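The pair is set out directly below:
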Amino acid sequence: MSNARRPIVALVTDAIYPYHRGGKEVRYREVARRLTGHADVHVYTMKWWDGPRTRREDGVTLHGFARYRPLYSGERRSIRQALSFAASCLRLVTRRFDVLEADHMPYMQLFPLRLVASLRRKKLVVTWHEHWGPDYWREYMGRPGVVGWWLERAAMQLPDAIIAASAETAERLREHVRPGVPVTVAPNGVDLSLVEGVPAAAERTDVVVVGRLLDHKRIDMLLDTVALLRADGRPVTCRIIGDGPERERLHEQADRLGITDLVDFRHDVSSQRELYGLLKAGRVFAFPSEREGFGIAVLEALACGLPVVTTSAPDNLARHLVKDSDRGLVCEPYAVSLADAVVQVLDGGDAAGGAESQARDARQTWVREFDWNRITDRVAEAMLR
């Protein structure tokens, strides 16, 4: 790259914050605006907004270069959207950039991006948030899952470099990538300065969870847990923060279980500041997800001072955060086990340290390693070296 000008980084992802809220969307927003200290940053995405196709936010140029299509068809990612976005990626062959970086989902776009990078003789870097593998593809799609696994395995052969969102994902990827392709671990992070400055919200609750309302997040298990605790004479209150395809079904389940008075669904949380305030208003963070490439919500909860209860589901890599933090419990992936763990943490009271002291200790110790500024430095090194 020329020393006469700043390098130009093109980040390609079909979903961005705040139009779609999830771990990877938060990651791209936080990394992109910090990456401007290293390069000129352009984000290429679907046109989620009204008005001109190009706009500037926090020093980052956003390009709505692809037609907007819903990400989901029912409870699964839309194949039509994936194909449409992949076709749009061919337009990047005429754009100016020094490094082409892409979000690995939904895989199909990586093939035209490989072609674009090769034609332009530029580096293709892919951020891999989670590795699925053949067993999960089979569970997700049934017999056609073999095609999904073939697609994922072929996609792993395309990048010149990979950024993995966790050490566990990196280990799984190294079995399949081309020889010599570096795999850098740059996990998701947290804005510690923002966390420190946000007070707890007034609306207190016993249990809180954050996440997209998707089937694999297993919010249904958490609702079953609340019902079990009520039946045992323990009416534990619960706040569910997030939205997604499972929204209506989860409301119906809460009504069927007779726990609507205990469950506070919050589909309207629009900022990280509001989110952190609501997290601090909880006593324990429950995270029953059965598949998680990292678990940014768990990291945020720990940074806010909450002990976390999560499950030992093999593909729930967030369990490693809980084990490393020593602030919570990892239980078996069943409602009964989750209920026992929640009660154990709630009854522990100050034995877990208390939210205020936990948050202070977390900021002083291991959570600092996940500060977004440090994570961005790792990303920049992987892209620009």
Observations:
- The radius of gyration is 21 Å.
- The longest helix spans residues 335-348.
- Confidence is low (pLDDT under 50) at residues 350-357, 359-364.
- The CA atoms of residues 245 and 263 lie 18 Å apart.
